[in-house]
Amino acid sequence: MDMVWVKKEILALLFCAGAISAQVDVTPFWRSVDSVSRSLGNSANDLYTDLTLLDTIKLAGETFPITWKSSDTLFLAHDGHINGRFVGENKQVTLTATIHDGLSAKTQDVPLKVSIHGYEPYSNYLFAYFPANDNENIYYALSNDGYSFTAMNNGKRVVAADTVSIKKGLRDPHVLRAPDGWFYMVNTDMKSAEGWASNRGMVLMRSRDLINWKHATVHFPDKYKGKNFANVTRVWAPETFWDDTYDNGDGTKGRPLVYFSLLTNDGTIPYDKVFYAYSNKDFTDLEGEPQHFFDRGKSTIDMDIVYNPVDKFYHAFYKNEGDGGICKVTASSLMPKSGAASGSQWSKPSKALQQTTEAVEGAGVFKLINQNSWVLMYDCYINGHYQFTSSPDLENFKFVQDTKTSGAFTPRHGTILPVTAQETAALMKAFPTPDFEPRVIDIPDSIGVCDGKKVVGPCSGTKIVPYVKVDDGGWNETLDLKVAKGATVQFGPHPWDGKIWSWEGPNGFKSTTRENSLKNVDGDFSGYYTVVYTNETGCKSRARIKLVVDDPDKPYVEPDTSTIDTSKTEIAGSIARDLNFAGKVVRTEYFSVNGQMLKARPREQGVYIRKEILVNGMSRISKISIR
Prior knowledge:
Layout: H1 3-16, E1 23-24, H2 34-39, E2 56-59, E3 62-70, E4 85-86, E5 91-99, E6 108-116, E7 124-130, E8 139-143, E9 150-151, E10 170-177, E11 183-189, E12 201-207, E13 213-219, H3 220-223, E14 232-247, E15 253-264, E16 273-278, E17 291-294, E18 300-308, E19 313-320, E20 326-331, E21 361-367, E22 374-380, E23 385-391, E24 398-402, E25 412-419, H4 421-430, E26 446-450, E27 453-456, E28 467-470, E29 476-477, E30 480-484, E31 489-491, E32 500-505, E33 509-511, E34 516-518, E35 527-534, E36 540-550, E37 568-571, E38 574-577, E39 585-591, E40 606-614, E41 619-626
Parallel strand pairs: 30-36
Antiparallel strand pairs: 1-6, 2-3, 3-5, 4-27, 5-6, 7-8, 7-25, 8-9, 10-11, 11-12, 12-13, 14-15, 15-16, 16-17, 18-19, 19-20, 21-22, 22-23, 23-24, 26-27, 28-29, 28-31, 31-34, 32-33, 32-35, 35-36, 37-38, 39-40, 40-41
């Protein structure tokens, strides 16, 4: 059989059968499968969850066993389970599939590059926005889930426009957390009371802590005097994107790229087009003249760019000014190829992405903390509220909720970014927010060191607070409860806004709701009620509540736990694999030398393949001979 064909066939079957969601390390024999990898959503270009690996494969009508080997089990086990992560950066691991034919140790090795997503050290979300056309100042709000927000600073502004802007108005704030340790904010320098053609520049701001900002203004009529850019009537909705390819000339790379929409009154820019310029090193000015970036042939404003490591594309969302709606374009590079026309790097525009018939603008896109889920939000500016949608791939969006805008929280065109628990605490100290109880997501415990950097567990479970209520009494936090026969017992653990709950208990008790009520209990209800909570990052935590009913007819007897199989125990959201059981065989399968699975252990003379499935989920393959 032609070996090149074998390699291609094995590769195609591995992916088409859904064996893995990974991208193959391209060799002269194997074609790239980027498009297949992108279509899988949570692909191994940016791996959040465990891989599900095939243990057999059909090739030319025959079935062959497969074994897998990870190049670094500190991060990824041989069975596809994620063991560890870096904090704040990805780790690339090679996973090799070996296809056995029973005659030799291996027939083909297929190396697959996977990139394990780094654990993000964030707990909350910060929303920077301006509240109204008659209140063009910067405000903050906080959230635990990225959807429901509480206004900070007792509903007062956090940056006063009249202290930083030429026009005494700040609109459309965009905040970037950059790799250099700075936060960069850009704003439209405009007061709408002077008209929609009164905007002449932008305000640049930089901070280390989101509290204390240094600012500078860029006034186009002065900066570009004698050039067409001096004739602007709009410099709308500036944003920044960190370009890590920018050469600073001092041995370092990386600089904020500032992009914005321009319109002039001299006919040189006849409708709103998106332009860009790099900031200077201190973020106090723009370098050089603005360069054309993108336009759709008609007015294009409010662009927001994010990079998706799964498909390795830049996704640029924008408003079709005059036509309504939010569309997007994509590009494999921020800039066009050398010699190509400006804007040629971008794809054709998508269909409208908003999930409403209302007029919308000010699209903002961000990723949920430690989740492979994106949020697209936009300002429903006529009806005075925001709408939030979600997407696993930046292609397909579904409605989540409209923002409750009332009292102090009435956001207009702004930005949401994740913040750490320490940053949240500092923000709340500087800008009191008494009505907000911040969630704290702990970084998982360290499990080792790689390249001098700490490696932590794959996820951090959410602590379960075991609240219990008996009859008409109050809620109490306890794991050990004794009640009278005939009582009503209610379980109501926190977090109250949790994601997935799963209960098991005595007498066949099962439930998937957070709160559960047991009425008129007797001795049959006595025992341990185990609740498993799966948080938004897919991490599990567990609690066991012991309930003893004082029933003389059915006295409680403590169960014998000496024979409990603890090979897989969920502790604080991570799976602890008991080494005492690692080698225990739970099932054995046999194959002929051509890979055909047999119904039972072979008795006839010959050579066979034996596959032992271990209790830890791994498998062991060996060749046996019967004489």
